[in-house]
Design goal:
The complex is a heterodimer of chains A (334) and B (333). With 334 residues, chain A is α/β, with parallel strands linked by helices. Chain A has twelve helices and twelve strands. The mean pLDDT of chain A is 91. Chain A is globular and about 65 Å long. Chain B is of the alpha/beta class. Chain B has a domain of 184 residues: 3-Layer(aba) Sandwich (Rossmann fold), CATH 3.40.50.300. An eight-stranded mixed beta sheet of chain B has the order 6-7-8-3-9-10-12-11, sandwiched between helices. In chain B, helix 3 runs parallel beside helix 5. The N terminus of chain B is likely disordered. The chains are: A alpha/beta (334), B alpha/beta (333). The interface between A and B is large, with 48 and 47 residues.
Chain lengths: 334, 333
């Protein structure tokens, strides 16, 4: 694994036993997150993006879930590379919340309602870094200030329910970053927030990354948010990566019909219905993970599909510098 | 408001609408305070017109939509529908009016009864309003399903057999079953994936035009709202901040809150200008809203005069464009 990589996921397979059959939620996914980089994983429901991030944290409920194959190589603070897919639960506990910080979509369900936010931020510091109560409290206060919580001294002794959604997400970020992780995994961190609060949180995350150099794995369904935060992007569809590349190239000239379609589906602020104008829509819906079509999984919804697309699955091939797409017809995608 | 002649009388006319909720506390759960979820809301909606209603959580947009249909009882103000005052209308007469006013809900998973077949989900309103014979109703349901892009054989299936987008189509068919003149669409696409969202927005747009429906389209996604709406109203903390024809509102917003909302919407174009107008802090508690302009505590342009009651007044600054802001000199962009 290259020395500038923090996370290197290789051919990850995460499966869930279903009745009947096996649901391959993540089916052979490979990508890497560099140091100081924000990598966004984008996809709709059922794409496998959240299962990918939960796998990296080893938070897949088992049973019914299992990491059935692949490697999750992670470079810790000491420079050592470990395969998280094979780490013992005990060893994993010293990585989670310590070397890998996590933020989830709904801060209210991720925070413990019966402890003050100061205790919750301090807990990680006491558990992982062996700080005493007083030092942990001082550090928790410093973190609350860092994430821009006004009147931090007072807020330290408050409970999550006393705070607004945006404030709670700031607390989550303070918790996630308290132990100075080398990797931050953020799973839809702004999806539950209002746009003006979302803008504040994205701004905060960008600023903190510049300051700390933490790598960020950012899971989202929102391509607008991707443009705001990501350096590189991975687009997932039906458990597979269909396109990846640097943010500019991917958003400016998408080469997979799915990415192209997703971008076209989103009305932008200037768009009007006018007379007879319609939004571009992708027909149909995401195939069930229990019954994926043969060949390219997007072929059934793709305007460019031809018989060869359903015969065999296309490979993820380079389409430009730091840009690849899994489409036989990428040259025809404008 | 501009004077209207009888022939162009608006279909819906809302004046000074208010909905207060009691905040209960103590052992006996007595009201200890009031939240004005909707405060002094006035607007007109013409036949065949789409009015977008935007705002963040707690802005009162959903409460406004439901109060207008009297799904929850407004605590003040007037609602005239096709010339008839409907606040205070007795149940039977209200039911007759409701045939002409329908709603499409946000969550297609929660708003369909899981034990009802699609035929009954859609046909129930026809039964309630005594429309047609049994056979007529069946044909009607089949026709409605086809109209919303499903097949007639869907009628014998249960909601769980459908995807989110398909369920929302069923929800739309249910609303259209009684041939309403007016629909409240409350965040109809927010729970859907983007690729499916576009299908449902297109469907709503087509049906609206074909059937000449008046729609109150409630949403927080500004781009979707502009796309579908003729006019747009912006709410904050229960109050109307700005209302204008779509182009005017999006191209020349006059209220600092509208400006902040527009600048906060993330744009997937990497070359889009990222001139951010970041607001500080959170929305204040609706139990204790600021005096004067309710937005002044977060407004970068607030003046001492904004705390005065007059700062709440909506005034017309361009044809059909009204704004509740005392400043005329604020421009962003």
């Amino acid at each position: 694994m290259d020395t500038d990589l923090t996370l290197d996921i290789r051919n990850l397979q995460t499966h869930f036993t279903a009745d009947p059959g096996v649901s391959k939620a993540v089916d052979g996914v490979s990508f890497a997150v560099r140091r100081n980089e924000t990598l966004a994983v984008v996809g709709e429901s059922g794409s496998g993006k959240s299962v990918t991030s939960l796998s990296a944290m080893r938070l897949i409920p088992s049973p019914p879930g299992i990491i059935a194959g692949g490697e999750i190589l992670f470079r810790g603070r000491d420079g050592q590379v470990r395969d998280l897919a094979r780490l013992s639960e005990r060893a994993m506990r010293s990585v989670r919340g310590n070397e890998i910080g996590m933020i989830f979509q709904e801060p209210m369900t991720s925070l413990n309602p019966v402890y003050t936010v100061g205790d919750q931020i301090g807990e990680a510091l006491r558990y992982h870094q062996g700080l005493d109560r007083r030092a942990a409290r001082a550090e928790a206060l410093a973190m609350l200030k860092k994430v821009g919580i006004p009147a931090a001294e007072r807020r330290l002794d408050e409970y999550p329910h006393q705070m607004s959604g945006g404030m709670r997400q700031r607390v989550m970020i303070a918790m996630a970053l308290a132990c100075r992780p080398t990797l931050l995994i953020a799973d839809e961190p702004t999806t539950a927030l209002d746009v003006t609060i979302q803008a504040q949180i994205l701004d905060l995350m960008r600023r903190l990354q510049e300051e700390t150099g933490t790598s960020i794995l950012f899971i989202t369904h929102n391509l607008g948010v991707v443009a705001e935060v990501a350096h590189r992007v991975v687009v997932m569809y039906a458990g597979r990566i269909v396109e990846e590349g640097d943010v500019r190239s991917l958003l400016k000239s998408p080469k997979h019909p799915y990415t192209r379609g997703l971008l076209a589906c989103m009305p932008h602020l200037g768009q009007r219905r006018g007379d007879g104008g319609r939004l571009h829509a992708i027909p149909g819906s995401v195939p069930s993970p229990l019954n994926r079509p043969r060949g390219c999984t997007f072929a059934t919804r793709c305007p460019l599909a031809e018989p060869a697309c359903t015969a065999a699955e296309p490979v993820l091939e380079p389409v430009g510098p730091d840009h690849s797409a899994r489409c036989r017809r990428w040259r025809d995608v404008q | 408001m501009t004077a209207v002649t009888v022939s162009e009388q608006p279909l819906l006319s809302v004046r000074n609408l208010e909905k207060r909720f009691p905040v209960r506390g103590g052992l006996l759960q007595r009201p200890v305070g009031w939240v004005k979820a909707v405060d002094d809301l006035s607007f007109d909606l013409n036949r065949g017109e789409v009015l977008g209603l935007v705002g963040e959580s707690g802005s009162g947009k959903t409460t406004a939509g439901r109060s207008i249909l009297r799904l929850i009882e407004p605590t003040g103000g007037s609602i005239r529908f096709d010339g008839q005052e409907i606040t205070g209308l007795p149940t039977a007469e209200m039911r007759a009016q409701r045939r002409r006013m329908q709603i499409v809900f946000q969550d297609p998973y929660a708003s369909l009864d899981p034990r009802q077949r699609v035929r009954d989900v859609i046909g129930e309103a026809l039964v309630i309003h005594n429309i047609g014979t049994r056979a007529d109703r069946r044909d009607r349901v089949a026709a409605l399903l086809e109209k919303v892009g499903l097949t007639a054989d869907a009628m014998d299936r249960f909601p769980h057999e459908f995807s989110g987008g398909q369920r929302q189509r069923i929800g739309i068919a249910r609303a259209l079953a009684v041939e309403p003149d007016f629909i409240v669409a409350d965040e109809p696409v927010s729970a859907l994936d983007v690729s499916v969202q576009a299908q449902v927005v297109n469907l709503l747009g087509d049906l609206q035009r074909e059937l000449g429906l008046a729609v109150l389209f409630i949403a927080h996604d500004l781009a979707v709202v502009r796309y579908i709406s003729d006019r747009v109203a912006v709410m904050y903390l229960g109050r109307l901040m700005e209302i204008a024809p779509s182009d005017s509102l999006y191209e020349r917003p006059r209220h600092p809150y509208t400006m902040a909302l527009l600048s906060a919407a993330p744009d997937p174009d990497p070359d889009a200008p990222k001139s951010r107008m970041l607001l500080d802090g959170d929305v204040p508690s609706p139990m204790n809203p600021p005096s004067g302009c309710v937005f002044r505590t977060r407004c970068p342009f607030a003046l001492p005069a904004c705390a005065a009651p007059e700062a709440r007044t909506l005034r017309e600054v361009a044809p059909g464009h009204s704004v509740a802001c005392i400043r005329d000199d604020v421009r962003v962009g």
